[in-house]
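pipeline/complex-builder :: batch 7 item 3
reading input block
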Amino acid sequence: MRHLEQELVTLRQDVIDMWKLVISQVANSGDAVLSFDKDLATKVSMREKKVDAYELKIDSECENIIALHQPVAIDLRFVLAVLKINSNLERIADFAYGISRVLIANPTVILDAEVISDTKLRIMIDQVNKMLAQGLDAFENEKSDFAAAIFSEDYQVDEINNDAAKIIANYIQKNPDRAYECLQLIAAFRKLERIGDHCSNIAEEIFFYLDAKVLKHAQKI
Amino acid sequence: MLTIDAKNVDFYYSDFHALKNINLEVEQNKVVAFIGPSGCGKSTFLRILNRMNDLIDGTRLTGSVLIEGEDIYAPGVYVDELRKKVGMVFQKPNPFPKSIFENVAYGLRVNGIKDNTFIEERVIESIKSAALWDEVKDKLKKSAFALSGGQQQRLCIARALAISPKVLLMDEPASALDPISTAKIEELIYELKKDYTIVIVTHNMQQASRVSDKTAYFYLGELIEYDATTRIFTNPKEISTQNYITGRFG
């Protein structure tokens, strides 16, 4: 195997490992919130540094490949896409950490089970996890069509978020004493919605890498 | 406007079919890079553009090659006249055993120009165009062999420019030079394209991507892909091109 190919294989594996870690961070932060599991939230918080370390490592590998090997064509698109995917994954992990912090920073908060059910928090968490997994599947198997569904799923996530805001606003009117907890819940929804946006960004990069298509700012569905 | 227009060109070294149905157009004031593995036909095609292959026994060409609309293989075309229009720079600098000044003046003198004032003006202009003036202005009477390899190569470019060609052919012009001299040649190519149409053969992919507007990829005597250099080096249409430029074969 040529030197550049070895470097690309290493980079690819590091991205896949980071991706899997980020998927588990999002899943664990969601589970922690839904089950009020502070230990799990703490675990997410502790593993956040590991994601940051991956980000720095991958950035450095990309920089070295560009400086030392001057990749072109699909190799260049791969490295450029990885740089952006790396950044998006790190932001997703930040949001997962932020969701887990809701529990850690507010030890007395108990979210109302009915409002959690009505706002479809579980569905939203499952949806963004599914989008992250689809992106990884497309990247690992080099099949851009595996990532195509992410764009429409992002719209679904946006809709759940919009609906949730209305439901929570109504709930606050009826239960003004629970306003603080509700604000925490709105913040969690907002973070999940942003995770959906980052998944969509990642899907764009997968299309750029594999098909040389620029979907940024374009109508996708 | 097209400066070079090759149509259905086939070329043979005796029985060997070296180039197969090449169709390629080069616009005025553009730089085109020919790339491909050794033996792919890129240098053969470059030499076709000023009939250098005529010197090789047993070669045969079919199709047509137009330079500024004139078929250079048509009966009655004088090769000497063609080479005034199409200059060439080779892989290794090949100055004549003469002074720096006389190297550049040579083409003018063999073309019968006797006006020494005109010759001097043209020599100075050519050396300046070749980005060599500041380095040689005080030693024009000295032997060209006293120059470094990079300076000799720019002197050869000045020599080619002196006869005011329309097209400049370069066959791996920087492959024998150090990185600084190579950078000077590449800068020079960028400057020269304002006045000339340039075709360069190179094995250096980065050089092709840095200096050219369009890139032609040759393989086994065929022109596989010819497109904007930005396209070739970011998203080539042909998998064969991609495999070559990414170093996966060749």
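note: Residues 2-98+168-245 of chain B form a domain with the Rossmann fold fold (CATH 3.40.50.300).
queue -> next item
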